[in-house]
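pasting for ref. prot 1 ->
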Amino acid sequence: MNGHGAGGPASRRQAFWRWAARSCVALLLVAFSGPASAQPVQPPSAQPPTPPAHPQPTAPQPARALAPRISVITFGPGDETFSKFGHDAILISDPRQAPANRELVFNYGTFRFDSPSLIMDFLKGKLSYWLSVSTLERTLEVYRAFNRSVSVQELSLSPEAALAIQAFLFENAKPENSHYRYDYYLDNCATRIRDVLDRHLGGRLAAASQGPAPLTYREHTRRLTVGAPFLFFGLDLAMGPLIDHPATEWQAMFLPEKVEAKLAQMTDEHGAPLVKRQRVLFDSKRPPLSQTAPGFRWGWLITGVVIGAALYGLGHGRGRLVALAQALALAVVGVLTGVLGSLLLVLWLLTDHAVTYWNQNVLLCPIWALAIPLLCLDFGRSRPKYSRLMMGVVGAAVGSSALALLLLLVLGNQATGPAVSLFLPLWLGAGVGVWVRCGKPALLSVVRAERALPSLR
């Protein structure tokens, strides 16, 4: 933008909407990539000082006596949305490299936040991440600035295994090899490191990780976002039943902390601990994370009951202003739930986000709720013409929410408890409030409202 004028009002409006769209998708991106994103070395919210030159390691020559040391670095969670799940990387300490490159950090959690295709790639579920290389000094500078703990596990590996891992990472870091399709549960910064280690440990890491994990993907996601209510709710609402399947210890290593814990339990081929030495490079002094899934979130039920009671109470009120207030409240509910339901359907039907498929929360945020704001233009009148149609639309939302509760109780294949506890009492209150405003007609007669549909054209 340097050297260019501000342009006319039209260009300014276009620039504003482009900025708004990118900002919305950026917020969705950091929320969606949370469970596995592990942030890049340079978090997009704050850029660290640029080092004098990007490290360019030279491929080492085999030398048994001077084999590199391989370590796994685990970074603790931070305050930002994208840092809630931690991060990890591989550290290679090689005395044969030039002094500036003797301790290099290989990071699978790098992506371009300013990419022109970021929006479409995210919406399609085709985000591209890559393996980047940085110095240990620069990496520590970034994580200290964000008050995130840094611990290092030096692994007890044979010289051949250490050299093989180093050669693999150097080859993988080449531009033509470094990119991969990111998946926040199945292919992320933690699973990449897990797989690299398992490949060069002869499959022993996978063999030792086939036991059942105590928590599912969703329960891990909930426990790590429970302190961020909106992130908790957004992720819980957007994810379908795929993340409620029982997980193994191997699958649980989508989280950096689980990779760290499993490595600490492993032994090498001689029966000695696989982790030769563990040290803390920086301690953030943050409280330890809970290792259990959070209990029932009463706050969502209370919120749903309060909103539902308010909608019910407005239906009992008398006077023009109360009727208008009820219509406005219903319009807001219709817009919010209808937009949410539309987004859930887009994620399910039009993207590669497999974890959003068959999401039962579409029953709680029905797409037909988008008709409610249009009907509210009539419903706020003293004698609404389409009141029965409004009853039918809202009643259908009550019925679909009840169906969501039934699926939760009978099938139980998707843990929709928080969403059901919020939306079911909300829709019940809205439904009864509309029914009261309409004079409490016989509920079966509402079916006749379908005859009013042609007159709305």
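and prot 2 ->
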Amino acid sequence: MRFMSTLCAVLLMTPVTGFSQISPPGEIRVDTGSRIRVSAPVFGPEKQVGTIASLTRDSLGLRQGPSTASRLVATSDITALEVSRGSHTRKAKGALWGLLIGAGSGAILGYTLYKEPTCTNQGFGCIAWIGPDSKGSNAAFSAAGGGILGLVIGTLFGMSATETWVPGVVGTR
């Protein structure tokens, strides 16, 4: 009984975040200088990427590329708005997938393509034979080679940068 009352007292003393202190998940308020991706009938079916040059209660000025000119869009015409959270690469993920695919393919090929050595001469002709002597060891050697090759290729594929977009809300302070 004493344990339960102590436990209840400790639980009541722990701070709890109020609902008013939690920011809405996934929506970010845009401001001047934000990199956005916007969809509006003015732009056609394609989403346009640019930087907010000006922002008022009823319009948004979008600057695209290196030009200093901006296109005004009415906020009531905006059908979708996303804010950039930065760009990142997927090198580690690509390397892992490359390693797994390369090692698996190498092991399967090494196991199926193995041939017994045909050297019967015990003299100098077979002295240089260093390598796998069974299907299992050939699969292991091939898996190591395929894994290294896949690791390099997967890392190269993962080097391309991708941008992360989250939903945004137009609003002035």
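The chain is about 35% helix and 25% strand.
The chain has a mean pLDDT of 82.
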